[in-house]
């Protein structure tokens, strides 16, 4: 619970109470400006969160309404959906992104791939070996880059151990969660191109 600050005092960055008479005018003015901006930012953030939740609910309700027209009951919030205005000027996209992780079978795949490299020895392509080492590198959080792992699955290699490794990778893929995005677009003139209506403060 946040401790109340006594009247005529301000709390500094170390948590100490400082009499306001000892705080310079410029420090007070800077503090007031920051708190004003933060207040506006929190209000905008709350409005965006409310917009996202309401829009997601409206889209899902419309999908279910559309399904009822054909006697189909649709459920769940997954799947990409695009809704267009009648004149084609605007479109609303609901996109769902899944977070993929790998279970212990990825290590089985790595062992099989290492066997391939050892078996190929001097005859192996240096670029493929570099690609493999790069794919299994982890980031600062110790996580594997899924795109790099998937790049291995695109290689057309017929070696039985390699094929087993690719099967192990496929079997190791797990869905750890999903996140929905709402994007709103406006057509550029009469072209086929659409520009997003930005809801990202950095892009406005």
Protein architecture, described:
The protein is α+β, with helices and mostly antiparallel strands and 204 residues long. The chain folds into two domains: 77 residues; 126 residues, no CATH class. It is 45% helix and 20% strand. The chain contains five helices and six strands. A four-stranded antiparallel beta sheet has the order 3-4-5-6. A two-stranded antiparallel ribbon has the order 1-2. Strand 5 and strand 6 form a beta hairpin. Helix 2 runs antiparallel to helix 5 and helix 3 packs antiparallel against helix 4. The radius of gyration is 27 Å and the shape is flat. The protein starts with 8 loop residues before the first strand and ends in an 8-residue tail after the last strand.
| Beta strand count | 6
**What is the overall shape?**
flat
Low-confidence stretches: none
For the terminal residues, how far apart are their CA atoms? 36 Å
Rounded mean pLDDT is 85
Strand order within the widest sheet? 3-4-5-6
Number of H- or I-type helical stretches? 5
Largest sheet: 4 strands, antiparallel
- Portion of residues in beta strands equals 15-25%
- Classify the oligomer: single chain
Number of domains: 2
Give the fraction of residues assigned to helices.
40-55%
Structural class by helix and strand composition: alpha+beta
Gyration radius (Cα, Å) is: 27 Å
Elements, N to C (H/E): EEHEEHHHHEE
